[in-house]
Amino acid sequence: DIQMTQSPPSLSASVGDRVTITCQASQDINNYLNWYQQKPGKAPKLLIFDAANLETGVPSRFSGIGSGTHFTLTISSLQPEDIATYYCQQYDSLRYTFGQGTKLEIK
Amino acid sequence: QVQLVQSGAEVRKPGSSVKVSCSASGGDFSNFVIGWMRQAPDEEPEWMGGIIPLLGVTNYAQSLQGRVTISADRSTSTSYMELRSLTSEDTAVYYCAKQGSAGAFDIWGQGTMVTVSS
After folding, report:
1. What is the DSSP annotation of B6-28?
2. How far is A43 from chain B (nearest CA, A)?
3. Do B45 and A98 touch (CB under 8 A)?
């Protein structure tokens, strides 16, 4: 199975900061990479699909880029409501795996 | 819009089984691809398997093959996930989700806590 390595595991940033989270796949997954936000006690929420497409209703400060094995999620200006854990997820050959997550905190 | 509503929390003893339901509303259930994930405390979600209700075709994670069965009832727009031979390591929140583009899960149920304890 394809492994997803996400970094950093945790991140502390200030409101207004630009924040970047990376995800590395163990093999080429084309653009089949998705990003989720999860707040405590809630289900994951889809932010970005197909590496770079913003899900309807998601603020434009979220963006994604990448292809092949290397992908990034960027929050252009961190807001207090962005405090959450973020996961990448790949889809290849009817198999799906999630990264280990990045816990984002306010400094 | 599409909503997925799951059944309530369950407590089971080791060696038993559990069946969780996921009822869809607001869309054409038959044309969905439904995935099931679970998430142990402080862990990432783990994909367990999925089903295409229109075709009745299922697909399971290799790690759970033989212990999990996913089914769907088109007449009630409900999917089910049954997990057998439970151990404490199966304690987790179980989610159903609808699959959209690029294998992304765009609509999620609220989650069902399953606790396995003697």
Report:
1. E---EEE-TT--EEEEEEEESS-
2. 6
3. yes
